[in-house]
Amino acid sequence: MLENSTRTELESIGEFGLIDLLTAHINLHQPSTLKGVGDDAAVINHLNNRTVVSTDLLLEGVHFDLSYFPLKHLGYKAIVVNLSDIYAMNAKPTQVTVSLGLSSKFSLEAVEELYAGMLMACNRYEVDLVGGDTSSSKQGLVISVTALGEVTEEDIVYRSGAKVNDLLCVSGDLGGAYMGFQLLERERRVFLANPEVQPDLEGKDYIVERQLKPEARKDVIKLLKDIGVKPTSMIDVSDGLSSEIMHLCRHSNVGMNVYEDKIPIDPQTYDMARELDLDPTMTALSGGEDYELLFTVDQSDFDKVKNKPDISIIGYVTDASEGIYMTSKSGNKHALKAQGWKAF
Amino acid sequence: MLENSTRTELESIGEFGLIDLLTAHINLHQPSTLKGVGDDAAVINHLNNRTVVSTDLLLEGVHFDLSYFPLKHLGYKAIVVNLSDIYAMNAKPTQVTVSLGLSSKFSLEAVEELYAGMLMACNRYEVDLVGGDTSSSKQGLVISVTALGEVTEEDIVYRSGAKVNDLLCVSGDLGGAYMGFQLLERERRVFLANPEVQPDLEGKDYIVERQLKPEARKDVIKLLKDIGVKPTSMIDVSDGLSSEIMHLCRHSNVGMNVYEDKIPIDPQTYDMARELDLDPTMTALSGGEDYELLFTVDQSDFDKVKNKPDISIIGYVTDASEGIYMTSKSGNKHALKAQGWKAF
Question: Does any CB of chain A come closer than 8 Å to the CB of residue B53?
Fold first, then answer.
């Protein structure tokens, strides 16, 4: 990687020069990758497994703000959010393709930073970057990632398998990425108002990292396999707990009841929410970008999932006619509402 | 599809409402598609075949101008350019994923037009649209398509298999899409200067269609199979003949000699180039977006490929040390230069 003080204009190296430079550091991990970048298409050998494929689009000004999002982190996150979808199928991610739209404000060094973050994620998750497209953009940075994964017929988990009396579980904790986002936004506004003031992120490293460098729960998929639990349904938490619960209920044609006091929230998330006059539970329900796994398991698996530090049992599955509710700390039942972006 | 006179704001239906509406018309064609849209990832059953995957990013203002590109055509083209990459591996495209970034200037009706064009292409090529992502965009329309295909180990064709004395062939004709683009650009400028003037596209339907509604050469892949010819190397013509020849030479470590008078150019392309004071050969070499197939075949296949209306033999493969040349109509040899975008 070159020093930040150097700036090489992208136009000076051209499309093919850029592709050569970016792809020089790609390592391949998967035996199924027969051909990576460099032809019209990558070639993957999938034997008798199921191939799963998922795609995500990240746009500057919508999904990220480069004024506080380091490019290396952004690259890392762009890969991770796609892998999270593959894990949510109980599958193993194997390959990704990456398309980049780059405006002239980006130097080669900046693009290399972005790509270095992507490759760091690929190496960490042992996923092969096998192709993509680079293009100029008049509209800021555009990142599109497609991930492929594999899974056997017996292991695959859809959103549609939840059944009445199943336990509703979630990995890790929720709301942290959203509180990290709110914190970074606040510090950006402070900085814009007075550039002398340094960002105050002291003691808030966890929620900042949840926003800037999330991880996909490969470890939870492994844990479930190790303890012999196959979820009946699963989804990753990208839009917020409330929205994901609605998805599971809709696809499985069931209702759910979730207990507010069981929703796992980290102390930093809780404190930040209080500091910003927000309800901590709302950050978990509607914040999103946690990339935790929300899943249901059969009641008979209770002993296997209880007391696992990475898994919280937060509710149970009901008949569809009973609706989708949260039981609050005070014992009242509130109907949950769907979220998703409203950014148009 | 609703009438154009109706305008439904995207914000009034939200992300999930939009996804439901757009995906309601998807037909599945491939037995290998076990699960399409609606979960974290699509699920594909690939048995013992190779999976090939290719991806493309199309950005407003860079790859298309909505002032003359009808949205339905744009959707059609966005799919076709990806399928073309799959055919260029001698593979059969089977699934696509589509990510859209939409700014608030697009109504639901506009997005439905775009999507209708995509589904038209999917139906025409019997490809399944199995997933994607929709997002708001502050930057105009963003389209990212990833295509998957399958091919047996014996049939797959890379860019790297060309060998000395192979024949260099191209399907269809070249330069038409670029001349269509130049014509549409000219008429747009005339219209901007004087909105009373109607576009003059009379007798130029072929080159306009080459730009606005290109097709992938599924028929040529079938023809080659029918006549028992397996190309030794292949690529699709997206950046221009010159650039694609360079790719084949580089990946196969060979040289090539192409004859200017063998390059297939349609009369409409030729006339339009002359009208615009351009060299018709240059439109074929550097124009791009033809989505024809450029491939090499063994000399022993000469009798099989000669006299096929859809195939032109335009040159032959030489040792790498002999370089990459075009022999002009006057008999002079010119070194070919790489192209690719210079749009940064």
Answer: yes
Tens-digit pLDDT profile for residues A146-177: 998 888 878 889 899 999 999 999 999 999 99
* Cβ distance of A57 and B142 shorter than 8 Å: yes
Residue pair A67/A188 in contact (Cβ under 8 Å)? The answer is yes
Give me the domains of chain B, ranges plus CATH numbers.
Answer: 10-151 (3.30.1330.10), 167-335 (3.90.650.10)
* Chain B nearest CA to A50, separation (Å): 5
In angstroms, rounded to a whole number, what is the distance separating the alpha carbons of residues B293 and B302?
17
pLDDT-derived band at B1, boundaries 50, 70, 90:
very low
Q: Distance (Å) from the C-alpha of residue B80 to the closest C-alpha of chain A?
A: 14
ipTM of the complex: 0.84
Backbone phi, then psi, for A122, in 5-degree steps?
-60, -40
User: What are phi and psi for residue B49, nearest 5 degrees?
Assistant: -80, 165
pTM of the model: 0.87
> In this structure, what are the phi and psi dihedrals at residue B325, rounded to the nearest 5 degrees?
-130, 155
How far is it, in rounded angstroms, from Cα B261 to Cα B257? 12
pLDDT of B340 higher than 50: no
Nearest beta carbon to residue A344 from set B10, B338, B343:
B10
Measured in residues, chain A has a length of: 344
